[in-house]
């Protein structure tokens, strides 16, 4: 636990409604430097909506989001400037562009040193694939390209949308090591994930959402033993 360290993300009392539906209901938690926080919960619990709030794509009806101590920027370039980067569930790669070209894409709008692309590829074990069209790679490699692309802007806060989704056991183990290393460098990591074993391996803290409300928050062990979490999620349909 790193409670003394600087909060990179502070979600305070965030409420979002879509028409009559309350997608997020008074949600509060923080992600600190060097900390990995996992957001889990059943389908429709509000996890993606929360990511979208952090990225300025959805405006909360109530509550605030602060990034590195300041109100969260609402533009993509503002977020990168504040040190935030995100991966997408659908990866969003350009299949005919090479791996390196894909990883360079964020720098075309924000500027930054292209050498970071090579660092990011090396970190993800992709240096040897830099000149391959991204669309020709198997899914696990494409997921690593998407993560390398998120790293190229040198974020302090990483938002990972289902990073373990669609991966086998070996790739999930490697990913767990990568996420631990990224947090070990002092980054904050917030991830949305259905793969509970992966979450238990990488998360310092787990926040459990159900019908838009935080029903539990704590260490993986604390959350695993919580009867409300068992009932809402872990006992049924968890991967
Ligand atoms: N743009 C929108 N308009 C109306 N309702 C929405 C919108 N986006 C999300 N919702 C609703 O808000 C609730 C929360 O959805 P959200 O996608 O955040 O859940 P989730 O936890 O990410 O689910 P999943 O695990 O299936 O991705 C759901 O009931 C969803 O149908």
Automatic annotation (TrEMBL):
Gene3D superfamilies assigned to the protein according to its UniProt record, in alphabetical order: P-loop containing nucleotide triphosphate hydrolases
GO terms for MF: ATP binding; ATP hydrolysis activity
Positions of the ABC transporter domain: 9-236
UniProt keyword Ubl conjugation present: no
Organism of origin: Myceligenerans xiligouense
InterPro entries, per database record: AAA+_ATPase, ABC_AA/LPS_Transport, ABC_transporter-like_ATP-bd, BCA_ABC_TP_C, P-loop_NTPase
Pfam families per record: ABC_tran (PF00005), BCA_ABC_TP_C (PF12399)
Entry's Gene Ontology cellular component terms: plasma membrane
Keyword Transport: yes
Name of this protein: Amino acid/amide ABC transporter ATP-binding protein 1 (HAAT family)
Keywords: ATP-binding, Nucleotide-binding, Transport
């Amino acid at each position: 636990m790193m409670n003394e360290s600087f909060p990179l993300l502070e979600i305070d009392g965030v409420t979002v409604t879509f028409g009559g539906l309350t997608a997020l209901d008074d949600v509060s938690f923080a992600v600190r430097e060097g900390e990995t926080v996992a957001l889990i919960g059943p389908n429709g619990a509000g996890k993606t909506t929360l990511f979208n709030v952090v990225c300025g794509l959805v405006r909360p009806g109530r509550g605030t989001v602060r990034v590195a101590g300041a109100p969260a920027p609402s533009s993509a370039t503002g977020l990168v400037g504040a040190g935030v980067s995100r991966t997408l569930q659908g990866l969003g790669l350009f299949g005919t562009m090479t791996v390196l070209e894909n990883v360079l894409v964020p720098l075309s709008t924000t500027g930054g040193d292209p050498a970071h692309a090579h660092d990011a590829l090396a970190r993800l074990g992709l240096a040897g694939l830099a000149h391959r069209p991204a669309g020709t790679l198997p899914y696990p490699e494409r997921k690593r390209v998407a993560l390398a692309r998120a790293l190229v802007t040198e974020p302090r806060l990483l938002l990972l949308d289902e990073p373990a989704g669609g991966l086998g056991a070996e790739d999930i183990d490697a990913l767990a090591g990568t996420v631990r290393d990224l947090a070990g460098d002092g980054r904050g990591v917030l991830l949305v994930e259905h793969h509970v074993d992966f979450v238990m391996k990488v998360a310092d803290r787990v926040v459990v959402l159900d019908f838009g409300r935080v029903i539990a928050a704590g260490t993986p062990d604390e959350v695993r033993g919580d009867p409300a979490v068992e009932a809402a999620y872990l006992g049924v349909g968890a991967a």
